[in-house]
Write a structure and sequence with these properties.
By secondary structure, this protein is α/β, with parallel strands linked by helices. Helix content is 37%, strand content 14%. Bound molecules: zinc ion.
Length: 263
C-alpha cells in the first residue's frame, strides 16, 4: 500500500456518509436506510461540538437526530453570570442549535459537575432511549479527565443494556440499540482511537452556525478555543478520509466484527 492509498482508506477505518440503519447489516436488504441517532452528552456544549455534526449529517441524509444532555453545563459560567442564568443560556443555545440542524433536544436535570453514576441515572437514560428508539448512540469515550464525562460513558453503557433487556419492565417497551460510537472530544482524548469517519461537507456551515449559539464556542467563558479546535479538527479528519471536513468516531469494541461474503 502506498501513501496515497493509505490516506484514502485511513488504514482499516470505515468511511461512511451517515450511520446506516440496522437493515444495512442484512445481506438481502435494499438500499441502506439511514437511522435515528441519539447523542448523549454530559454537557450541552459537548453534545453540539463533538456530536452535533453527526446528527446534522444524519438528518441531511434522511435520518433523525436527538441530543440528550444530562446537565445544563451551568458550572462553566464566567464569574459575572450567576449559575442559574448561565444554565438557562446554555439551554436556549442548545434549543436554537438543534432547531437549526433539524434535531431535537432533551435535558435531564443533574447538577453540572455532580452527575451521578448509579441505578437511578442509568434507568432514566434507559427510559429516554426506550422512548426515542434510536438505532445508534454516540456518547463520551471513557478516557476522559472529566468525572461527568466518565460517568456519562458508564451511565450510557448501563442504560443501553437496560433499554434492551426485555425482562426489565419500565414505562416503555424494550429497545435494542444496534450501534454505539464514541465522539472525539479534547477532554476525552486518552486512548481515543477512531475507526469510523463521516464526511460532513454538506452540513459543515450549518453545524458551525449551530455551535456559534454557545458563548463558550467563541471563548467568551474560558480559555479554550473551541471554535478553532473543532473546526480545524474537522479539516484534519477530512484530510484523512477524502473530504473537506469530517468527523471521526470510535466504535464500541464489541461491534467491530464484520460478516462478509468475500473480501
Ligand atoms: Zn463537558
Amino acid at each position: 500500500m502506498n501513501r496515497r492509498s493509505f490516506a484514502q482508506s485511513v488504514g482499516s477505518a470505515v468511511i461512511l456518509s451517515a450511520i446506516p440503519g440496522s437493515s444495512a447489516l442484512t445481506q438481502d436488504s435494499a438500499a441502506p436506510k439511514t437511522s435515528k441517532v441519539m447523542a448523549i452528552a454530559a454537557h450541552p456544549g459537548d453534545g453540539m461540538f463533538t456530536m452535533g455534526a453527526v446528527l446534522a449529517k444524519q438528518i441531511e441524509r434522511g435520518g433523525a437526530g436527538v441530543l440528550l444532555s444530562l446537565s445544563l453545563g451551568e458550572r462553566g459560567a464566567p464569574k459575572d453570570i450567576p449559575l442559574q442564568q448561565y444554565g438557562a443560556m446554555q439551554r436556549t443555545a442548545t434549543e436554537n442549535a438543534v432547531r437549526l440542524i433539524g434535531a431535537e433536544a432533551i435535558f435531564l436535570d443533574y447538577p453540572d459537575a455532580e452527575i451521578p453514576f448509579n441505578e437511578e441515572s442509568s434507568l432514566r437514560v434507559c427510559d429516554t432511549i426506550r422512548e426515542q428508539r434510536p438505532e445508534a448512540v454516540v456518547t463520551h469515550w471513557s478516557g476522559s479527565w472529566h468525572k461527568d464525562h466518565q460517568n456519562c460513558h458508564l451511565i450510557v453503557r448501563d442504560a443501553i443494556f437496560y433499554a434492551g433487556l426485555e425482562t426489565l419492565a419500565r414505562e416503555h417497551p424494550a429497545h435494542a440499540v444496534s450501534k454505539i460510537f464514541y465522539a472525539e472530544n479534547w477532554e476525552d482524548a486518552a486512548n481515543f482511537v477512531p475507526d469510523t469517519y463521516i464526511s460532513i461537507d454538506p452540513v459543515y456551515e450549518k453545524w458551525m452556525q449551530a455551535c456559534d449559539f454557545y458563548p463558550m464556542w467563541r471563548g467568551q467563558t474560558g480559555f479554550f478555543r473551541y471554535n478553532d479546535y473543532y473546526s480545524s479538527l474537522s479539516v484534519m479528519r477530512g484530510c484523512l478520509s477524502g473530504s473537506r471536513h469530517a468527523v471521526a468516531l470510535m466504535s464500541d469494541i464489541n461491534q467491530r466484527s464484520q460478516r462478509l461474503q468475500s473480501l
